[in-house]
Specification:
The protein is α/β, with parallel strands linked by helices and 130 residues long. The protein has a single domain, classed as Protein-Tyrosine Phosphatase, Chain A, CATH 3.90.190. It is built from 5 helices and 5 strands, in the order E-E-H-H-E-E-H-E-H-H. The longest helix has 17 residues.
Length: 130
């Protein structure tokens, strides 16, 4: 499944990111892959960006901040963005929620509570992400 978080921000796991017909149907124009060893479709109709987050990285906050900045730039440039990792349950929701928190001057807790009704699968609570 693909969850629509805002008009320009969508969330999924790796397998859904390869459903080209569904991505086109939703009007998605860019894909941000934040998985470490996770693939994205190689398709000419989408802008593809990868910021692989790895739990054993010596400077993980740098890559988290980078992923949020990339997401912000993609959306500011008019893209409808699908953000994904392997399962859509850990890294990608964290980056999406952190982006929404920063953009709307909210806490991760507030965004988590607001977004969870829109995500029809279990995700790992954002504070558990190191």
């Amino acid at each position: 499944m693909i969850a629509k978080l805002t008009e320009n921000l969508f969330l999924s796991g790796e397998s859904e990111a390869h459903n080209i017909d569904k991505l086109k149907e939703l009007g998605i124009t860019a894909i941000l892959n934040v998985g470490y060893q996770v693939t994205s479709p190689n398709h000419k109709d989408f802008l593809m960006v990868k910021v692989g987050l790895h739990e054993f990285d010596p400077n993980p906050d740098f890559f988290k901040r980078l992923a949020v900045k990339v997401l912000d730039s993609l959306i500011k440039n008019g893209n409808k963005v699908l953000i994904h990792c392997h399962a859509g349950a850990h890294r990608s929701p964290y980056i999406a929620f952190r982006y929404l928190a920063e953009k709307n001057n909210k806490t991760l807790d507030e965004v988590y509570r607001e977004m969870m009704p829109l995500v029809p699968w279990n995700i790992i609570y954002p504070h558990s992400i190191k």
